[in-house]
Amino acid sequence: MIPLPPVKPHGTFSLQQLTFSPSGDWFAACGVDSADNLVKVEIWKIASLLGASPQPSRILSGSEFPPSSLHIDSLHGQCTAVAFSANGMWLAVGTFSHEIAVWSTATWFRVGGQAEFIASGSLYGAKVGGHGAGRYIDAPPMADSAVNAVAFSPDSNRLAYSTADGNIYLWSVTAQLPVSTISVHSGGVLSLAFSPDGNCLASGGNDQTVRFSCGIDSTLEQRALTISISPESNTRLLGESDDWYNFAQ
Q1: How far is CA 93 from CA 90, 103, 223, in A?
Q2: 105 and 89 in contact (C-beta within 8 Å)?
Q3: What is the pLDDT of residues 14-45, one digit of tens each?
Q4: What top-level class would CATH report for the domain 13-248?
Q5: How far does Cα 119 stand from its chain's mean position?
Q6: Residue 248 predicted with pLDDT over 70
Q7: How far, in Å, CA of 117 to CA of 111, rounded?
Q8: How many of the other CB atoms lie within 10 Å of CB of 4?
Q9: Annotated domain spans of the chain
Q10: Three-state DSSP state, 130
C-alpha cells in the first residue's frame, strides 16, 4: 500500500460527511464553511494526493446550475448526507436545512428547475442514451425536515432521501415521475439501503425499527423512459404513477 498524505481542507471548512466515487478515482468531502455558513462539497482526485500540495479539483456550493438556468441557490446549514450513484454519474447531498441537491459528475451542473426539457440523448452530460430524443427532468423537491440519509438505487435511476420527521422520498433521476413519499416510521429515518435488485428499500429509524418497503411495479420507471414526451404520454404516465406509491412494509 502507498500511504497518502492527509487531506487538509481550507481553514474555515468543517468536514461533516465523506464518500468515495464507485471508481475510486475521487472522493467528495462535504461540510460547512464558517466564513459564509454555506455547505460546500470539495471534490478531490485521488491521484492528486501524491502531489506536493494537493488541492481539491473543484468546490461545489449548490449554485452550479446550467447557464440557461435562473437559479442561483446555494446550500445552507450543515451537510448531513452525501452519496455517489452506482454508475458514478450523479452526486447527491442532503442538508440540515431540508435541502437536497444532485449534480451530474460529467459537467458538475446541479439538476434544477421544474420539468426542464432535455433535448438530446443526455442529461446534464450524463450518458443515458437510447431513451428518445427528449424528455423532462424535475429537480428533487426540498424535504419538510432535515435530511438524514441519501441512497441511490443500484441501477442509479432512483434517489431515496430520508428525513428527521419520519418520511422517505423517492425521486426518479432520469424519468418524469411524481416523487413518492413513504411513511413507515414513527420517528426520524436515520439510514437507507436498497436491495441489490433495487426493488426493496430498507430503512432504520430512531423508533428502533428497521422497515422494508418494496415497489409493486419495478418496470414503471423503465417504461416511463421509453415513452416520448407528448400530452398523451404525460396522461399515461400520470395514470401509471399511481402504482408507484404503493409500497408494502
Answers
A1: 10, 9, 28
A2: yes
A3: 888 999 999 999 889 999 888 888 889 999 88
A4: mainly beta
A5: 22
A6: no
A7: 12
A8: 10
A9: 13-248
A10: coil
